[in-house]
Amino acid sequence: MNPRHLFGISILVAALLIVGAIFALAVSAEAVLSASTAQETLRIAPNSSGMSEDEFMAYAGRMEQRYGPEAVSALRLHIPYETRGSSPEPAMTPNIRYVSAWNGSLEVRNDDGVVLASSDNALVLYALDLTDEEGREHYYWWQWGAAQNREDIWMGDASNLRNFWSRVEFENSSSNLLIYAPDSDIYGTEDTVTLRFGLEFPGPDCHSISRDFVLHQGKIRPKPGECRVGSAGKYAVDWVGNHEGTQSIYGICEERRENSTGSAVLWTYCLTTSQF
Predict the structure, then answer these.
(1) pTM (two decimals)
(2) CA spacing 20 to 30 A to 54: which of 134, 184, 185, 236?
(3) CA distances, 151 to each of 90, 117, 158, 249 (Å)
């Protein structure tokens, strides 16, 4: 065979081998980053009962044992003195009271039923003891979640947290969503970041809500396409990243009720993980 032809064939074979290697790497990368998701939705009907304040405090204690004080601090301390007894200065006591709370948990499993990651989630409802100038009531929906991946490679459950979020969606047009926080992206890598929320109708003796928490990796944000102020609004707080370990999220929104019929709320929480 002509040596020139042999040289051309060699180049063609080498090129095919390179393309094949790139394809194999792409397939392998897709397998490594395969993601699994778990999601639940709870409908909270008007005047439906959740946890009493004592039950909520006991729940917060269990979460602290599971995730540590860092991940749970804002769950029960986001409103100053509200869940720690009376204020040392009576004039500083906020006119906000605990109403109820709901909780749920998720597990993400692989095809063999092995748990890859889990999360605990809570939705806490507070009410302002004052009405605004038109006699309307204001409520505050506090969203909390903590997620944790599993890292035992011998059990086949090594995984990373990729995404988890919590959404409050009002069904009634009489529920008017005024503001929410966070309202923009917050980035961090082992950073202490602050969630600040100024009440739309603060009234006398009402404090803004401010709480620090650790963002180990990634970002926390309002979930794109899942936030809308106004009548029958909705708000979702969203964490996105690639983290081994535990991460918590916090979010809050203010609801103004146009009448006393109560609110019907769809609360959805979701967890996504990727396996090595």
Answers:
(1) 0.79
(2) 236
(3) 48, 9, 4, 21
